[in-house]
Write a structure and sequence with these properties.
Layout lengths: L5 H14 L2 H7 L8 H11 L4 H11 L5 H22 L1
Length: 90
């Protein structure tokens, strides 16, 4: 998770996402603000049901990306988590 090589972090994501436990998901939270947007999107997509508030905040930030595809994916994740957060408060 702390490797400077994004391929290592991508591999760690794949392994931890496959495990999908409370502990592995807590570790994945560290990737939602990775320097590479594709890694952030992977983590956000996986964690959106587990940590909707955290994912909502980061997906909102990603909607300012210069990359159209990143903005589109972040918007979809944001809308999903907006619904999740809304219903968890009610």
């Amino acid at each position: 998770m702390n490797s400077t090589d994004p391929d290592d972090r991508d591999t760690a994501f794949e392994i931890l996402a496959e495990i999908d436990s409370e502990e592995s998901n807590k570790l994945l939270l560290g990737l939602i603000d990775d320097e590479f947007e594709y890694i952030q999107l992977q983590a956000l997509g996986h964690l959106k049901s587990h940590y909707p508030a955290e994912v909502k905040a980061q997906s909102l930030a990603l909607q300012r990306s210069a990359n159209d595809n990143v903005r589109l994916q972040a918007g979809e994740i944001y809308r999903f988590t907006e619904t999740q957060v809304k219903y968890s408060i009610s």
